[in-house]
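S.,

Sequence below, as promised.
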Amino acid sequence: MKVEVRIKRYDPERDQKPYWSTFEVDVEPIDRLLDTLNKIKWTMDGTLTYRRSCAHGICGSDAMRINGRNRLACKVLMRDVGSRVTVEPMLGYPVIKDLVVDMDQFFEKYKSVKPYLITYDTEPGTERLQSPEERERFDEGTKCILCGACTGSCPSIWGNPDWVGPASIVNAHRFIFDSRDQGAAERLSILGRKDGVWRCRTIFNCTDACPRGIPVTDLIEQVKRAIVFNDTKNA
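The prediction came back faster than expected:
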């Protein structure tokens, strides 16, 4: 099948403003968009710039805006995008070049919520055990691959770049509700600030954008309730 691929291009060191490049590409219906981008770069325009790594939906490096929705290029089949596909960098991030965005602030926000196990008691000398039910309580958040698709789809981020963003809250949730963790109060204090969890407007763009099927908006609401009721293990 033949498809028209429109790609938003921009090199801040050379271009005054973004522009569009259009490519006519012969593809197979079960080719992935990443395959198509590779074909363009390798045979048509070697200057095209984008991130890629595992190509199996695990690393999250090839998140981009595909036909107006944040997706992983390695998980989108050409038969599902039609004969014309528009590819852009994710919104809400500074563009480094073409489809590559600057994720530095994203990871700084991620680190700000202390996304690691915190304990204050004496080391037990054995594993810190928990029941299957206790594990299930926070399991959804462990699926996050930090691709940034949820954060880049959020209008609250577009309007306020200082907001901590949905990905950070999801990763805070993962430890707030972990029965082994003792740092929930610290994280809830961080997320209770003006640029914390309350900036979420429950628009659900983040849930739609997540390539791992995480119910992002629901996890954010759970954190809100934990702050209100101060019940980090049973909220």
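The first helix runs from residue 33 to 43.

Coffee later?
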